[in-house]
Fold this sequence. Notes:
Order of helices and strands: EEEEHHHEHEHEEHEHEE
Helix content: 25-40%
Number of strands: 11
Strand order of the largest sheet: 1-10-11-9-8-5-6-7
Radius of gyration: 17 Å
Number of helices: 7
Low-confidence stretches: 1-23
Number of domains: 1
Distance between the termini: 15 Å
Largest sheet: 8 strands, mixed
Strand content: 35-45%
Amino acid sequence: xxxxxxxxxxxxxxxxxxxxxxxxxxxxxxxxxxxxxxxxxxxxxxxxxxxxxxxxxxxxxxxxxxxxxxxxxxxxxxxxxxxxxxxxxxxxxxxxxxxxxxxxxxxxxxxxxxxxxxxxxxxxxxxxxxxxxxxxxxxxxxxxxxxxxxxxxxxxxxxxxxxxxxxxxxxxxxxxxxxxxxxxxxxxxxxxxxxxxxxxxxxxxxxxxxxxxxxxxxxxxxxxxxxxxxxxxxxxxxxxxxxx
Length: 244
């Protein structure tokens, strides 16, 4: 079973007012994709993240997934609410991640890993999409976190042998066929005493993996966040796992 914590918070709009148009473009073999900028302000810090589109509400997600042809934006370089929630969770755990080794799975635009690096963590960001890694690296440079390392990696052909104090990922549990590969990564790359943070918009398929992990010695708890921008709002769970 998955254990719920009482912690809940609402994410307000960043000082920029959300997503704004940026003249920057992402150049791909399929053509040039215009980029927008999202600014996230927490306390006295602010991060600026380039992305191909903000997929915030359920309606946004359905439009994104149902788009065809040239209207379909690359999945990995869109900005998803789970990444925003995970960024907030990392700031809330700043003291626990400082000077720690952090592995980000499915980094996409890189927001959570960039926040972790800004807080003093030693971050390795991985993704299988070259476009995502390029944008992830660009966002790191824009936010002054050039110490983070980006690596191309495929969960089905995983070659990373290092161990990490934290493994993080935002909205990476949605594809059930990948669950055995993710579990293998957790088991092989999490250092003794380490923790995992996975953010997810309460997808039923994600819960199946989490419940299986919990039953086999990986206690799961969660914090609930509500990601909001203008009229759209979506609840996001950040699941915390550790190995007994």
